[in-house]
Amino acid sequence: MKPTDIQPNATPEYTHWLQEIKAKIKQAQVRAALAASRELILFYWDLGKSISKTLQENTWGNKVIDQLSKDLASEFPAIKGFSRRNLYYVKKFYEFFSSFSDSEVIVPRDGAQLENDIEPQPKEQMAPLIINLIGSHLPWSHIKIILDKVKDHRETLFYIHETIENGWSRDTLALQIKSNLYSRQGMAITNFKTTLPEPQSDLAQQSMKDPYCFDFLTLTTPYNERDIENQLISHITKFLLELGKGFAFVGRQYHLEVGESDYYLDLLFYHIKLKCYVVVELKNTKFIPEYAGKLNFYLSAVDSLLKSEADNPTIGILLCRDKNKIETEFALRDINKPMGVSEFTLTETLPENLKGSLPTIEEIESDLQGLEPESE
DNA sequence: CAAGTGGGTAGGAAACGGCT
DNA sequence: AGCCGTTTCCTACCCACTTG
How distant is the alpha carbon of residue A290 from its chain centre? Predict the structure, then answer.
């Protein structure tokens, strides 16, 4: 007989193990009725540890999990969470998070006050910091999303902190992971280092992404900047979510009168945490330095017309479809107002009557350019 | 030896049901 | 109506073993 053919429930070891787990569950029940998220997480941690270790030490094969699921479900019909599927999550939960070290967990959250939150505890047999952190803040289903989709330690910690900070729902967390927020956050090209004082410059940098994903927009070609703006406003909830925490919508086509002339800002926000106005200009084209000059002018105008004593200097965000990194950095160098440039993406659909027709001149040209024997 | 086969693990999508 | 925890179903893949 192969080892995996052993009926796990027939061995004394298994029976003993099962008794242990049952005892723990009863204990946990008394302690806090398992419904409390924190206790649940800690219990899952313990259970996952037990499952993981026991499976390693024995040759029962993973069918034990099926068996355990049945045994526990029949013993405790009132308690959910002993399904085969969930026990797999529990096991993975322990195995993944036990590879985190405590020192890794204390990543600086925009202050450095996290260390002081956690009082020293007896080291051995205690759940590590990461579990305490999760247990106090994240529901189980959020953890499953992370277990499912994130493999990297730093990335995991990033999403855990962001979820706690922003109060993301499960679906929002899933969305942010899917759109790969981790590698977009703070990536915009800006001149904040030279135009803003610390720590304002770091905060502002962290508040900007590159690219912004406006995939909830579906625009039928051809469309212009005003079309994009219209749709952004009609999906204002998703728009604000993608912009990130702290942006409060002030107005669109915001009117400014400078001297004899009228000017209109595409989108105007106020950032609660940065305590400053944020001017967003949309360009449905590639970035060119002239845009930065124009935005610089708008920022000066807002600073003198809207900004009060208490407000920090106004920040500009230029959203364009494409940009050259070197060129953009160069263009921002001589701008004296704080400003960042990001790309944005959206969903384009072709109008019905054009689908399948011949490519445009531009498309042919860009295809040809792609074929040119240039070095990469 | 290579291709086929079947058991088993794992993950994703979607639905369900409880809760507020 | 939205959120959350859980389950169900489906699919991909791995591995050992068999069969031509």
Answer: 33
d(CA A277, CA A308) in angstroms, rounded, equals 10
Could you give phi then psi for residue A332, rounded to 5 degrees? -80, -20
DSSP secondary structure letter of residue A252: E
Ranges of beta strands (E only) in chain A are: 189-190, 212-220, 247-258, 261-271, 276-282, 315-320, 339-349
Q: A145 to each of A48, A149, A156, A163, how far by Cα in Å?
A: 17, 6, 11, 12
Residues within a 7 A CB radius of strand C: A 2, 37, 73, 80-83, 85-86, 139-142, 144, 169-171
DSSP character at residue A11: S
**Alpha carbons A21 and A201: distance in angstroms, whole number:** 52
CA A57 to chain centre: 38
Torsion angle of alpha carbons A324, A314, A247, A251, nearest 10°? -100
Query: Do β-strands A212-220 and A339-349 pair in parallel, antiparallel, or remain unpaired?
Result: parallel
Residue with tokens 């900007």: A208
Give the whole-angstrom CA distance, residue A26 versus residue A175. Answer: 37
- pLDDT tens across A53-111, in order? 776 666 555 566 767 777 776 676 656 667 777 787 887 788 778 777 766 665 434 33
Query: Among A312, A266, A269, which residue's Cα sits nearest to residue A291?
Result: A266
| CATH number listed for the domain at residues A184-352 | 3.40.1350.10
DSSP string, A262-324: EEEEEEEEEETTTTEEEEEEE-SSB--HHHHHHHHHHHHHHHHHT--TTSPPPEEEEEESB--
Ordered by start, the domain boundaries in chain A are 24-178, 184-352
Lookup: tokens for A92? 């993975």
pLDDT tens track for A195-212: 999 889 999 999 899 889
How many angstroms separate the CA of A169 from the C1' of C1? Answer: 15
- Prediction pTM value: 0.76
Which of strand B's nucleotides are less than 7 A from any protein C-beta?
A: 8-12
